[in-house]
Write a structure and sequence with these properties.
The complex is a heterodimer of chains A (113) and B (113).
Chain A: E1 5-7, E2 10-13, E3 19-24, E4 31-37, E5 44-50, E6 53-57, E7 64-68, E8 74-78, E9 87-94, E10 103-104, E11 108-112
Parallel strand pairs in A: 2-11
Antiparallel strand pairs in A: 1-3, 3-8, 4-5, 4-9, 5-6, 7-8, 9-10, 9-11
Chain B: E1 4-7, E2 10-14, E3 19-25, E4 31-37, E5 43-50, E6 55-58, E7 61-66, E8 71-76, E9 85-92, E10 101-103, E11 107-112
The chains are: A mainly beta (113), B mainly beta (113).
Chain lengths: 113, 113
């Protein structure tokens, strides 16, 4: 079965650079979520989209922005990167609704040097 | 504030034994999900239990939910070395239709061969 695809899987950037993470949800899933997991931490919700509109926002820095496109894939744009942005970034997709599972992608490991 | 808290934080058992992990949460929920994460890897969805369900089984997994105590437990029976991973509970903090997940701190399970 198709799963959530994230690219790139690994990314190394310098401080103050920008990064773009991509997420391709499971076919027919219309809701995408982004989470950040720091080393040894639990995943923290960043932002979500439903039918290409932002549906919720969590602890996402103003330096980050995201959008969902017409084909439902989503991109997380991160600017002025800081050392503390080093983390695993997960994308999850679902068909929405209160009783639907969220399926996670393999994550993008971002390292900021 | 942290929605989910898990205990124990770490659990080490022998192959063949059962492993029980507990999760507590603070607010009302629509569902509670359990995920497994191998070190630094993606989150694998294990099971979802709805707020109107009390127990659910999937293979060697048994999940219970007590909404009056705002707690859940995950039981892995006849554990295997391959079950070694971190296990997270996640609750949906559904407000205004958002189904973002709030994760607990996780339990690190080690199954010794």
């Amino acid at each position: 079965a198709a799963g959530v695809i994230q690219s790139p899987r690994h990314l190394i950037k310098e401080k103050r650079e920008t990064a773009t993470l991509k997420c391709y949800p499971i076919p027919r899933h219309d809701t995408v979520y982004w989470y950040q997991q720091g080393p040894g931490q639990d995943p923290q919700f960043l932002i979500s989209f439903y039918e290409k509109m932002q549906s919720d926002k969590g602890s996402i820095p103003d330096r980050f922005s995201a959008q969902q496109f017409s084909d439902y894939h989503s991109e997380l744009n991160m600017s002025s990167l800081e050392l503390g942005d080093s983390a695993l970034y997960f994308c999850a997709s679902s068909t929405g609704g209160a009783y639907n599972e969220q399926f996670f992608g393999p994550g993008t490991r971002l390292t900021v040097l | 504030s942290q929605q989910g808290e898990e205990d124990p934080q770490a659990l080490s058992i022998q192959e063949g034994e059962n492993a029980t992990m507990n999760c507590s949460y603070k607010t009302s929920i629509n569902n509670l999900q359990w995920y497994r994460q191998n070190s630094g890897r993606g989150l694998v969805h294990l099971i979802l239990i709805r707020s109107n369900e009390r127990e659910k089984h999937s293979g060697r997994l048994r999940v219970t939910l007590d909404t009056s105590k705002k707690s859940s437990s995950l039981l892995i029976t006849a554990s295997r070395a391959a079950d070694t991973a971190s296990y997270f509970c996640a609750t949906d903090a559904s407000q205004g239709g958002s189904e973002k997940l709030v994760f607990g701190k996780g339990t690190k399970l080690t199954v010794n061969p």
